[in-house]
């Protein structure tokens, strides 16, 4: 069991924007197996269109973020994901992500 006060957040990982924090909940992302992590994402951050070799499950724990599907970054086509939202991005599906305010996924 993991409760919020026991989550250990890392410093900003290499290649991520200032203010981004990550906490591994279970598993190892370097292995071909399921893993779970939390991410604190700063306001006004974006991830350009990309894909993953595995399904990606996203739950919004705090704040609001936006997710779009496709190879073109187009904020107008993205879906707003408020607190409590869940989405599944299937493996090899091009998608993009952005924030306007801080969020935790």
Question: What's the gist of this structure?
Answer:
Helix content is 0%, strand content 44%. The protein has 105 residues and is mostly beta strands.
List keywords for this structure.
mainly beta
Which descriptor suits the 3D outline? Answer: globular
Estimate percent helicity.
under 10%
Uncertain regions spanning at least 5 consecutive residues: none
What is the ordering of alpha helices and beta strands? EEEEEEEE
Computed Rg: 14 Å
The separation of the N and C termini measures: 18 Å
The mean pLDDT is: 92
Structure write-up:
It contains no helices and eight strands. With 105 residues, the protein is an all-beta fold. The strands form two sheets. Strands 1, 2, 3, 5, 6 and 8 form a six-stranded antiparallel sheet that branches. Strands 4-7 form a two-stranded antiparallel ribbon. It is globular and about 35 Å long. The mean pLDDT is 92.
């Amino acid at each position: 069991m993991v409760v919020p006060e026991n989550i250990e957040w890392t410093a900003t990982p290499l290649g991520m924007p200032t203010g981004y924090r990550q906490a591994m909940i279970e598993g190892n992302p370097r292995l071909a197996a399921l893993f779970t992590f939390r991410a604190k994402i700063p306001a006004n951050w974006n991830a350009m269109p990309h894909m993953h070799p595995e399904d990606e499950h996203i739950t919004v724990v705090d704040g609001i973020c936006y997710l779009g599907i496709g190879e073109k970054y187009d904020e107008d086509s993205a879906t707003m994901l408020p607190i409590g939202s869940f989405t599944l991005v299937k493996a090899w599906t091009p998608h993009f992500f952005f924030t306007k305010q801080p969020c935790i996924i």
